[in-house]
Amino acid sequence: MKSRGSCFPPTSERERTPAPNRLRSKSGFGLAETLVTVVICGTAFLGLVGTATRVGSAINSTHERTRAMAVAQAQLETLLSVEYDEVVDGATERDGVQLVWRVRETDELKEIELTFGYQVVDRTLTGSLTAGRLKP
C-alpha cells in the first residue's frame, strides 16, 4: 500500500479524499443559511422600528400635554388675578389648546374648574385644573 504524504496508510474514505475537495464542501455559507439570516435580521429590525415609533409617539404626547398644561395654568392664574366679581364662566382657545372654565360660588368662595383639550396626532386629549378664590 502506498501512503500519500504520510507514513501511515489511509484508514477511511474521507482520508482518501484529496484535501482541496474536503475544504470546498465545508467553506462559506449556502443560500439557505443566508436567507434565514436575512429574515431573522429583518424581523428584528422591524421590531426595533416599531418600538422606536411608539417611543417617539409617547414623547410627542408628553410634550403636547406639558404644553397644554402650561397654557391652562396661565389661564387659571389670569382668572385668579382679576377682581373677585369678574370671575365668571367662560371659554377660549390659546395656542391650539381649548380652554373651558366653570365657576361655582358658595358664601365666601368661588371654585374654578378649568378643563383643557389638545390634539395629539389624530386624538383629542383632555385634562383639568381646579382652584379656589376666597371673597375679599
Write the layout of secondary structure elements.
Blueprint: H1 13-16, H2 19-26, H3 31-81, E1 90-94, E2 97-105, E3 109-120, E4 123-134
Antiparallel strand pairs: 1-2, 2-3, 3-4
Features of this protein?
136 residues, alpha+beta, N-terminal domain of TfIIb, 4 strands, 46% helix, rod-shaped
The second-level CATH architecture is Single Sheet
- Strand order in the sheet with the most strands: 1-2-3-4
Strand content: 25-35%
Q: Are there runs of 5+ residues with pLDDT below 50, and where?
A: none
For the residues shown, what is the average pLDDT? 85
Counting DSSP E segments of at least 2 residues, the number of strands comes to: 4
Determine the fraction of residues in helical runs and give it as a percent range.
40-55%
User: What structural category do the secondary elements indicate?
Assistant: alpha+beta
End-to-end distance, in Å? 120 Å
Largest sheet: 4 strands, antiparallel
Number of helices: 3
CATH superfamily: S-adenosyl-L-methionine-dependent methyltransferases
Find the CATH topology.
Answer: N-terminal domain of TfIIb
Instruction: Return the string of H and E elements.
Output: HHHEEEE
Count of domain modules = 1
Q: Compute the gyration radius: what is it?
A: 37 Å
Organism: Candidatus Kutchimonas denitrificans
Region (Disordered): 1-24
Protein name: Prepilin-type N-terminal cleavage/methylation domain-containing protein
